[in-house]
């Protein structure tokens, strides 16, 4: 696991990922992903993101199987859930799917081990467009 984290960190530094997408883009992807797994709600501690999620019709429910996190400390508190993260380096730490900006465009990265551990089944569409680590 440590080796995988080092490889991902090296991959990020070499290819220069620019980081997080604007919130209005993130919420659209979260809505698509949550819909694709058949779960109409998302757990989210970030109040501004929760407001944006509600604004586009996503229920915010702290008991949801789908969780949005943006920090290491939030991620450390989540176990056994399908975790959507905003930074690629959070995938090996427990994130299932990362929504990031890559070369000025949105990109989706998948951590297949963490997806399987969550017990959530992704749609074939998400599996096809997502890049696997």
Query: CATH class, anyone?
Result: Alpha Beta
State the helix count.
6
Which oligomerization state do the chains in this entry correspond to? Answer: single chain
Q: Low-confidence segments, ≥5 residues, pLDDT <50?
A: 1-18
Strand neighbour order, sheet with most strands? 2-1-3-4-5-6-7
Largest sheet: 7 strands, mixed
Kindly provide the radius of gyration, computed on alpha-carbon positions and rounded to a whole number of angstroms: 14 Å
Helix content: 40-55%
Listing every helix as H and every strand as E from the N terminus to the C terminus, the arrangement reads: HHEHEEHEEEHHE
Number of domains as seen in the coordinates: 1
CATH superfamily: Response regulator
At CATH level 3, the topology is Rossmann fold
What separation lies between the terminal Cα atoms? 13 Å
Second rung of CATH, namely the architecture:
3-Layer(aba) Sandwich
Beta content: 15-25%
- Rounded mean pLDDT score: 86
Number of E-state strands: 7
Structure described in brief:
This protein has six helices and seven strands. The protein is α/β, with parallel strands linked by helices and 133 residues long.
